Amino acid sequence: MPHPPHPPAPEPQAVPRPLALELRVHGVHGAAPEKLLDDPRTVRVTGDATAAVFRRTADAEAEAHPERYAGRPVVEAYCWSRLTSGNGSRALWLLLLPFMVVNLAHWARPAVPDGAPQPQAVRTYGLLVRILALSLTLLLIAAACEVALDLLAWQCAGSQPCTRSRWWLRFAEPGRWWGQPGRRLALAALVPAALTGLLWFLSNRTWSAYESQTPPAGQGTGAPGGGPAGTPALGRPGFWYGRRIVARLRAAHTAAGLLTVAAAVAVPVARRDAAAGAAVLESVGWALEALLVAGAAAVAWVVCRRGRTETRPDHRLDRAATTLLPGAALALLTAVLVYACWSRPGWTSSGRLPGDFAFGLLMLGQGCCIVALAAVARSLYRRAPDPATALRGLGGPAVAVLACALGGVMSGGVAGRFADWLGEEAPAEPPVLLSWQAAVLPPVLLALAFLAVFHAAGAARTRRRIAAGVAAEYAGSVPDGDRSRRIAGARTAAALTDSAPRFAAALSGITLLLGAGALAGAWLTGEVPGEAARGAHPLLEAAARAAQDAGSWLVGLGFLLFVTWGRRAYRDPAARRTVGVLWDVGTFWPRAAHPFAPPCYAERAVPDLTWRMTAWTGRTGGRLVISGHSQGSVLAAAAVWQLPPHVRHRVALLTYGSPLRRLYGRWFPAYFGSGPLLSLHRDVDCWRNLWRATDPIGGPAVPEAGRAVDRGPLPDPVAYGRTAEQPLPAPVLGHFDYQDDPAFSAERDALLARLSGPRPPADDRCGADDARPGAAAPGAGAGTGLPAPRLSRERAEPGDPPGTAG
């Protein structure tokens, strides 16, 4: 009897692969979601009109139909350009440029030695930068007092020719109620007081709009004490949420501005009362001056007492400092204005208000702080020297010098142009020190011009040397002199970025020395440079007058160009994008030193990206590759650092045209130095970085593991001449259009294929074996894919000890 046939074995069902997501982040120039996604039909899946995540319309419901995405990823784009170049009012942020630059000095300190943290030195460094930042606020308000109180209310309003030619000043003519100097000063003091209030309002408003984004629970290390040893600074839970320090500094700088205005009014009025022998008014004046000194001490205490707390998101506020200090300063200013309005018959204004001493004292204090800052930075650098660090650890002091120079030029430009606007009939003269500062500008520009010519000559020689071997890099190409010179020129121009530290060193050193000479000249002579050199050698006298005249003209021209640029950026979206590029680089860092600096867009963008990656991987169980171009790669790396460890191990990172090491690693070594970048390489599932020799911004990302992470330099152009694949001449792409390079598709597809497959074990990370000495660089040929060798799970030592952010 035949046996019944066996039933057919059931076919094994394929295990569905997890959904894969590619999250793209654009760079400084911004990009529309249609361009990032290569599709004109896009939809916003989360976010608002300022920053949002977009998808192709066809992919809006991808999570509901994962079977449709077998072998291909869901692509998203995070668009953040409106954080820095949105409406026209942000062009006014140009006026806050010195504040932004001094805030950068806080982050440009050298790295703390591995295994031997120096918290006291780090705190001293941060303290000195905060004092410099406070001096810039005082300088701005003092410049406003110089214009409103000295030039207008004291000098112009005290002169009949000046008041008669201006109908809006006739109410302050001598003999009228407002004609007394004290009352004129009290009225004019409302201008710098209003400026101080405007800065407070902008700082408070931009905090609410940009930086008040709370991080997701369990972000970064997730440990209440800041995580285990080896946690990079950008991975700490509270790094992107500094509410407490910003609130404290905002209150202190607001109070300092109001106290500066009060002092500018109280000092000349009290001097008059003392000279007139008015006992009661003299006593009131002494009491008010004593209160001003007490207020200054309170401001200094608040600024010096506490720096940033990064070990946790600090939601607490110091109510006494944030509320009582500005309120008390405002009440004291009100009392001073009432005191100044008291009737003083027979008092007339003549000469200048005592502003020379105030400006000189500020300049001297800034110079002393910069010297001390350089000493602390050099001490830190000597404990952990790194040749890649800009200026051998003196990058922060050099940036601080630039911030002070910008503040001085802007202050002098405002005062000088206002004095010119008053006209010849008004005997209004700005402080002598401002004329000496303007006279310093031509020698500084001449020195920079000489340095530029020197580097240009060297670049020409380098270009000729490179051009001789360009054609040999493309197999089978026929040499073309013009083509070789064009490619060599692009490479040479890109290499000039590495010369930026030399320019910064020359600019800061010359500015510091000449600034000290200007201060000494102003205090010793009490006259403008041209008059001080009268009777000296004819060449010296002519040089002094030429420097004074040229400096005044250059300061005025620079100030007018500055205002014109800001006005154009207000009206022209293209110019606004240019201003936005400046803020993309300068406002990446939180406001740790100056609360009136433009807002930190990364305190909105990094939590956005962290929330998106954490929520999506937790909801779908899928895996994710985040790809960033230029500044977008910095945001992507910062967001990956903030991910919980279990999410970070399921994320791959693709960067291209990235300034992570070339710019950020050199100028901000404590946060993007070798240790933090190697730690990032170990933590993510896989990291690949593309770069070109023609790119002036991007470069290799990780020095010691460069073969494991970096693929480059990529050929640019992709073809030397006409080929079957490139029948038309290929362009030199430089910093842009990495997506058009075949290597980009190869690396992205390899990352996504790795992520779409079964999750590799924790000790199986891509790229580690390529870091062995003598290993071949991956990606030498397009489409080779990514290896998946083993990688040590050992963590790097900390680049910045917890709780010592300065």
Keywords:
single chain; 806 residues; mainly alpha; 26 helices; globular; disordered C terminus
Largest sheet: 8 strands, mixed
**Alpha-beta classification:** mainly alpha
Order of strands in the sheet with most strands: 2-3-4-1-5-6-7-8
Uncertain runs are: 221-229, 768-804
Strand content: 5-15%
Mean pLDDT: 82
So what's the overall shape?
globular
Summarize the structure.
The protein has helices at 33-37, 82-85, 97-107, 119-156, 160-164, 181-188, 190-211, 243-276, 279-305, 319-340, 355-383, 395-422, 432-467, 481-495, 500-525, 529-532, 538-571, 573-586, 602-620, 631-641, 645-648, 660-667, 669-672, 674-683, 706-709, 742-756, and strands at residues 20-25, 42-47, 52-56, 74-79, 623-629, 651-656, 686-692, 710-714. By secondary structure, the protein is mainly alpha-helical.
Write the layout of secondary structure elements.
Elements: E1 20-25, H1 33-37, E2 42-47, E3 52-56, E4 74-79, H2 82-85, H3 97-107, H4 119-156, H5 160-164, H6 181-188, H7 190-211, H8 243-276, H9 279-305, H10 319-340, H11 355-383, H12 395-422, H13 432-467, H14 481-495, H15 500-525, H16 529-532, H17 538-571, H18 573-586, H19 602-620, E5 623-629, H20 631-641, H21 645-648, E6 651-656, H22 660-667, H23 669-672, H24 674-683, E7 686-692, H25 706-709, E8 710-714, H26 742-756
Parallel strand pairs: 1-4, 1-5, 5-6, 6-7, 7-8
Antiparallel strand pairs: 2-3, 3-4
Biased composition (Low complexity): 773-790
Transmembrane segments: 91-108, 128-149, 185-202, 284-304, 324-345, 357-381, 393-414, 434-457, 503-524
Biased composition (Basic and acidic residues): 761-772
